Amino acid sequence: MSSRRNTVFVANIAMSVSPGEVEAALSQAGEVASVQFTTTASGKHRGFGYIDFTTREAAVAATELEGLELGGKPIRIDLCEK
Known about the structure:
Elements: E1 7-11, H1 19-26, E2 32-39, E3 45-53, H2 56-62, E4 69-70, E5 73-74, E6 76-79
Antiparallel strand pairs: 1-3, 1-6, 2-3, 4-5
Protein name: RRM domain-containing protein
Organism: Thecamonas trahens ATCC 50062
GO molecular function: RNA binding
């Protein structure tokens, strides 16, 4: 992961949503460097993950997308501070 200063935590991700869909949705805030979902031992995502942006400004802008619906569920977005 890049510097945590450029990272947001995203929760309430519907099981039907792919990392590519999250990247596409959040790229309106700025350039996405990577998307990492937390997964179970069987490889299914657990409904949350971390999205790294190339700049701090993009990560901050992404928090304004809080409540955006993906897969029929509003996502929660929090800026990682450490």
